[in-house]
Design a protein that fits this description.
- By secondary structure, the chain is α/β, with parallel strands linked by helices.
- The protein has 2 domains: about 80 residues, Enolase-like, N-terminal domain (Enolase-like, domain 1, 2-Layer Sandwich), CATH 3.30.390; about 230 residues, Alpha-Beta Barrel (TIM Barrel), CATH 3.20.20.120.
- Helices cover about 35% and strands about 20% of the residues.
- A 7-stranded parallel β-sheet has the order 5-6-7-8-9-10-11. A 3-stranded antiparallel β-sheet has the order 1-2-3, sandwiched between helices. It has a two-stranded antiparallel sheet with strand order 4-12.
- Strand 8, helix 5 and strand 9 form a beta-alpha-beta unit.
- Helix 1 crosses helix 11.
Length: about 325
């Protein structure tokens, strides 16, 4: 196991450094990168995915490349072109909203800062599809207020991702947003619940956002796609190119997983672990396995105390009761 700590270009999900564990299995390199605060039950699903990708069979692929959306952190409007410049050409952008610390140079914050960011993206990139992602950070009332302001502005969204926290709130909000023609996507309501199909059974989403690692691997995610039979966007969990490769194989393995994927997030890292990272060109990524550079493994190696922490985490997750 190689544990590395990579710097990020901007703070994302509240972090400035991304710490991950990497393994080389008989099928190739694989990544285990649950966020540090995750307990063994949740981190164990990520471990199952890492083991499957490193030791299991590669799924049959239906395409050799995958369309990619750009991802915009909760930055001020004047920082947008620089932040999105790292993604090259793109047809779709996902904008983070509901970040507590987000503000512009004028000092605005909250929903007003989110609106300023979205409006600036629409003005700067008039032809792109816009998705917004709240990571469950809004109440029903706040999400509805933001959506109504966007509707007044004539800003059509591809979808509003995880605007609220619970499935019940998501179902309630979906009915209200349908009246203004806005779709709802579910992310945390799929991967952070005991039954990933609960959001489908509750009729609480129009689109599912699926991530290979949190769902226990490619095969587990493919089963959800088969059962749900609804539009799917494959996304990432702020991984290195090795973890992104896992997501690309998932996105290429099913005909329904063909929206622009949220797998361009290596561009959010200041450094990657591979000499030829998975950075989108012309809005697409080629589906391939990648290997880390030994020089980069050494350059970004975490300290021995952190490696021991990950080893103990590995024991806790691997040996956890089923």
């Amino acid at each position: 196991m190689r544990v590395v700590c990579l710097p990020m270009r901007v703070k994302f999900r509240g972090i400035k450094m991304r710490e991950v564990a990497l393994f080389e299995g008989p099928s190739g390199w694989t990544e285990w990168s649950p966020f540090l605060e995750y307990e063994a039950d949740e981190a164990g699903a990520w471990l199952a995915a890492a083991i499957e990708f490193g030791w299991g069979e590669t799924p049959k692929l239906l395409r050799t490349s995958v369309g990619i959306n750009a991802t915009l952190a909760a930055v001020a409007p004047e920082q947008i072109t620089d932040a999105l410049g790292k993604f090259g050409d793109f047809n779709t952008v996902k904008i983070k909203v509901a970040e507590p610390s987000a503000s512009g140079t004028s000092g605005i914050s909250g929903i007003e800062a989110d609106l300023a960011r979205i409006r600036a993206v629409r003005e700067l990139y008039p032809g792109v599809r816009i998705r917004i992602d709240a990571n469950g950070g809004f109440s029903v009332e706040q999400a509805l207020a933001l959506a109504k302001e966007l509707a007044i502005d004539g800003i059509d969204l591809d979808y509003f991702e995880q605007p609220v926290r619970t499935i019940a709130e998501l179902a309630e909000l979906r009915v209200k947003l349908s009246r203004i023609g806005m779709r709802v996507a579910a992310d945390e309501s799929v991967r952070k619940v005991s039954d990933p199909m609960a959001v489908v059974h509750a009729n609480a989403a129009d689109v599912l956002v699926l991530k290979a690692q949190p769902l226990g691997g490619i095969q587990s995610a493919l089963r959800i796609i088969d059962e749900a039979r609804m539009p799917v966007t494959i996304s990432s969990a702020l991984e290195t190119s090795i973890g992104i490769s896992m997501g690309l194989h998932l996105a290429a393995a099913h005909e329904l997983a063909n929206h622009d994927a949220g797998l361009g997030t290596v561009a959010l890292l200041d450094e990657d672990i591979c000499d030829e990272p998975l950075i989108a060109e012309q809005g697409e990524l080629q589906v391939r396995r990648v290997s880390p550079s030994e020089a980069r493994l050494q350059k970004f190696a975490a300290g021995e105390d952190r490696r021991q922490w990950w080893l103990q985490r590995l024991r806790d997750c691997y040996l956890r009761p089923l």
